[in-house]
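Protein in question passed on here:
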Amino acid sequence: MLIKVKAKPRSKEEYVKKLGEDFYEVAVKEAPEKGRANARIVELLSIYLGVKKDRIKLVAGETSKLKLFQILGEEDQP
């Protein structure tokens, strides 16, 4: 499953908000430096979606506010 994420780094509060079928807004306190914000986004998505962090992969948008993540299910594992 692919989901689009609008990242909001350096936020005062952290949250995950579903904006559409496969579109989320994720606010994190981390700064977008050295992948810290992306790592925190993965942590929050993991909690929100109820999947392990290692099943969430950043596919596109590493340095952009709009990101594309792949959520791996049981069927996607080798």
In short: Residues 56 and 71 are 5 Å apart (CA to CA). Helices lie at 36-49. The mean pLDDT is 93.
